[in-house]
Amino acid sequence: MPITRRLTLLALAATILTGCATTSTNVATVGAYRDSIDLNGRLAVNYQKDGKTESLNGNFSWAQRPGHVDVELVSPLGQTVATIAVTPGSATLTQAGRAPVSATDIDGLTQQALGWPLPVSGLRDWLQGYAVDAGGQRFSASPAHNSVTTRDGWRLRFVEWQNADAAQPAPRVIHAERAAAGDIQDLSIRIVVNPAGQG
């Protein structure tokens, strides 16, 4: 084989290998964490309590600002089930027809009032594709790296993405599971985040 052709083939092979290497290191990850977000979507909750299987479905809206989170839980028929307001050191949950209830621990408050724990403190991160893992390290999800066990025992899987092929995709479907939380067993929460602009 003439040396010129051999060099051409070597150069072509090197170019292909370089392209493959570049592609393999170009892994999409979630965008930078935002202190202010407005989201809405759907929740499906399943758990065991007192030997019975319980299932709940509904919609939610989430408004987050620095130092403040407002959550609204809505039934499938459009009725407000509960509103939650969280500020540093305080959380208040109001259910239709009942007096507001306040506590310092929002996750404990939701379990007491709703009968199951809505992990509001974790959702601040999860809805944007972040978490704190079992070792206390910051976790950033991506389509290629999509599961983690959190410091407080939640097993998360980011199973679907908005704009999955983009450089900075956003979570679309999140599965959160926990073996036990107080008198609740086998708790699973499926969170579906609506794309921006959809109610």
UniProtKB/TrEMBL annotation:
Q: Does the keyword Ribosomal protein apply?
A: no
Give the matching Pfam families. Answer: LolB
* InterPro entries the UniProt entry points to: LolA/LolB/LppX, OM_lipoprot_LolB
Q: Give compartment(s).
A: Cell outer membrane
Chief place where the protein resides? membrane
Keyword Repeat (UniProt) = no
Q: Which GO terms describe its biological process?
A: protein transport
Q: Which UniProt keywords apply?
A: Cell outer membrane, Chaperone, Lipoprotein, Membrane, Palmitate, Protein transport, Signal, Transport
Q: Which residues form the signal peptide?
A: 1-21
Q: How does it sit in the membrane?
A: Lipid-anchor
**One Gene Ontology cellular component:** cell outer membrane
In terms of domain of life, where is this protein from?
Bacteria
The cross-references to PROSITE patterns, in alphabetical order and at most eight, read: PROKAR_LIPOPROTEIN (PS51257)
Record text on subunit structure and interactions: Monomer.
The Swiss-Prot or TrEMBL record describes its family as follows: Belongs to the LolB family.
Q: State the NCBIfam families in the record.
A: lolB (TIGR00548)
What is the protein's name according to its record? Outer-membrane lipoprotein LolB
Per the UniProt entry, what species is this protein from, by scientific name? Telluria aromaticivorans
